[in-house]
Amino acid sequence: NNSRYLQSQQERESSARSYPRRLPIVISEAEGIYVRDMDGKVYYDCLAGAGTLALGHNHPVVIGAMRELFDSKAPLHTLDLTTPLKEAFVDELFASLPSSLASRARIQFCGPTGGDAVEAAIKLMKTATGRRSVLSFHGGYHGSTHAAMSLSGTLGQKERIAGLMPDVHFLPYPYAYRCPFGVGGSETQELSLRYIENVLHDPESGIVPPAAMIVEPVQGEGGSIPAPSAWLKELRRITRERDIPLIVDEVQTGLGRTGKLFAYEHAGIEPDAIVLSKAIGGSLPLSVVVYHERYDVWKPGAHIGTFRGNQLAMAAGLAALRYIKEQDLPERARLLGDRLKEQLWMLAEHERCIGDVRGLGLMIGVEIVDEHREPDRLGHYPAAPALAARIQQECLRRGLILEVGGRHAAVMRFLPPLIVTEQELDDIVFRFGESVRAARE
Ligand code: PMP
User: Fold this and answer.
1) What is the C-alpha to C-alpha distance for residues 439 and 433, in angstroms, rounded to an integer?
2) Rounded to whole angstroms, how far apart are CA atoms 415 and 359?
3) Half-sphere exposure (Cβ direction) of 295: Cα atoms closer than 13 Å
4) If you read the UniProt record, what top EC class would you report for this enzyme, in one word (predicted)?
């Protein structure tokens, strides 16, 4: 059953298709954390739309909200004209922000994907500051549109595109395990900050005053790497002192995944702009930028587009956001994430190919290494992308869908829906352990 559809996909879809290459399954049903393929096989979905599905597939609260919209006479499409639903969505979102920002926040609805909102945030800050360069981080990921890809700190697809957005400067992210300064531990963040302060201070560094800095509070595609709170706090201090707008990309971290509603809350900072997508649409396409009113400089029509603020996605997203808050799912993500990390570290005691386990809440990464090669000067073995790919295949055979990411394509990424239970997580770790064993042999 699966193979007929896969064959058709190969013949008709763009060669850019990515996930289906490593996850050659055809999904016909989904509920909660489970998906079922055309052959009737059931999988745990720990990819969950790359972290989109905070409430899992087809959550009754989300489906109910969409059904209610269908059964009402409310419009499904209005460009950016206002509706009571849009008003309620903005009310709920603003009520979720720190009060100092909430009272002075503005929102821009963007195209349907995270990359669209990144584009909007950068354009906005360029307009507001009149400056042109942007600061971004090594290993960061911000999307696949032209400018968003220019800001992404890994080469990958970028290599093949000439003439991306110029004037992007990449700064060292505090990735302690593969420390860019070769020191590791807490010194990584210290040196990263010193580097950033120095290049911003030095008129000869080639960095002219930037229009913005964009950062992920936990690098997602870069390999589930949390930025330490102290580092983010300092970053906020530096950007504030130098009058550089700080854009926090919460596309993957937002809506409870990391143990707080927004990941920047861990550091107690207030960003100038927050980019949201994925979970904000409750499993439907939606993206927004929320920013401080002082940057509200656009003239009418400066940022347009047909699909801005899809009504169905707002209904789904509003229901999901309310449910996440009512059920305190961020706290649940924190507790379950700590438990998951603990279990994965226990597994690492027997499996030396697990080099690192890290993450915040239910955004966990396991870095797969080759323990038969020379370790680096921190004593860490080189990344093992081929082994990670085999583990992913073994997981798939055992009914577990995991994403592989990271700068070296060697990080197994756990992004389960926040409604996952302890028993399910135990079973997921068990299947993962079996898969690691099988892939090694
Ligand atoms: N920013 C971050 C942090 C992301 O993780 C992603 C998607 N993985 C994006 C931006 C781009 O979002 P989209 O794929 O919806 O364009």
Assistant:
1) 10
2) 10
3) 31
4) transferase
Distance CA 107, CA 124 (A): 12
Ligand 1 centroid to residue 98 C-alpha, Å: 24
284 φ, ψ to 5°? -110, 160
352 and 233 belong to one structural domain:
no
Cβ 45 vs Cβ 401: under 8 Å = yes
Which residue, judged by its Cα, is nearest atom 7 of ligand 1?
Answer: 143
* pLDDT single digits (tens) 161-191: 888 999 999 999 999 999 999 999 999 999 9
DSSP, collapsed to helix, strand or coil, labels residue 278 as: helix
Helix, strand, coil tally for the chain in percent (to 5): 40, 15, 40
Nearest Cα residue to 407 out of 115, 140, 46, 47: 140
| 355 and 268 in a common domain | no
Please answer whether residues 120 and 305 qualify as being in contact, where contact means their C-beta atoms are separated by less than 8 angstroms: no
118 ligand 1 Cβ < 6 A: yes
How many domains is the chain built from? 2
Residue closest via CA to ligand 1's atom 13 equals 114
Looking at the structure, do residues 248 and 366 belong to the same domain, yes or no? Answer: no
What SS3 class is residue 250? Answer: coil
Q: Are residues 117 and 260 in the same domain?
A: yes
